[in-house]
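The pair is listed for reference:
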Amino acid sequence: MKRTFYFGTTLLTTLLHSLCCVLPLLTTVLGASGTVPALAGLLPYQPYFWALQGLILLGAFYHVYSRPHRATSRGLVWVLALASGLFSFVPHSTWFKDERQVLAQAQVERVFNTRQLTLAVNSDARPQVLKAELRTLKGVIPTQTAVRAGRVSLRYNQQLTSRTEILSELRQRGYAVRLTAAN
């Protein structure tokens, strides 16, 4: 009974780990990148999957080696441990990635790290000047900025800046800006 428990739970956590790490990369490489945002919800739980996977593997090793068991049980635990290690190592290793996979990984990271921001700006701001100033802000993606009729729409990298930093920088430069209801 315990052998089935350890086998099942180790296999389940290995599959859960592959869902948060391998599956988003695989779907992007295969061209189904529309599923990546849906799977992005699993990414914050990745450390918990690793910890759960490690604890269950430790329990399985303890169970198999603390009492006399058949060699097949021990071999099965080692196979699961190797599968777990493979699923943990391969998605994070650049050695196994070709150029398409590296580009896919960059796309996934861009999706996870960029945020949309829409601002209302005073009507006397000149759109071309404002757009040029937005492009100089750290973290703002230059190709993703648009200024139209008192509204500014932009994308920024949340690891490099925040919306409060963007707002304060624009206000220091003399623009009357505020967040819109879309944020």
